[in-house]
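Box 3.1 A note on notation
Throughout this textbook, protein chains are presented in two layers. The first layer is the amino acid sequence; the second is a C-alpha cell string describing backbone geometry. Keep the layers aligned when reading.
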Amino acid sequence: ILGGTGALGKSLIKRYYEDNTIIVFSRDEHKHVNLIKKYNRVESYLGDIRDKSSIENALVRYNPDIVINTAALKHVPICENNPIESVKTNILGHQNVIECINLHKKVEAIINL
C-alpha cells in the first residue's frame, strides 16, 4: 500500500491484515513505527512516490501481486498554497508509480485512488 500510513491506507490495512501480507510504503517513519507496533506482521518500506527509484526498489524487494496507491496530498487549501509540491506528488508521483509498475511484470493489478 503506497501511502499506507495515511488515513485511507490504515483503513485498508485494518480491513485486509488478517488474510494478506501487507507492505506499507510511505515517507513518514514515525507513522511506520506506530503501524508496526499495532500490526506486527506489516512490512515497512520507507520511500516516496516522488522518487522513482524508491518505488522501483520496493517492487524489486517485495514482488507484490497487487499495488494500492493511496499516496496523495489531499487538503485543497494546502495544495492551492503549494502548487509545485502538489504537482510533484499528485501528478508526477502517480506517473512514477504507473511507469514502475509497467516495467515490473509481476504486478497483477494496481488500484490508484
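The helical segments are 7-16, 29-38, 52-62, 76-81, 83-103. The CA atoms of residues 26 and 50 lie 11 Å apart.
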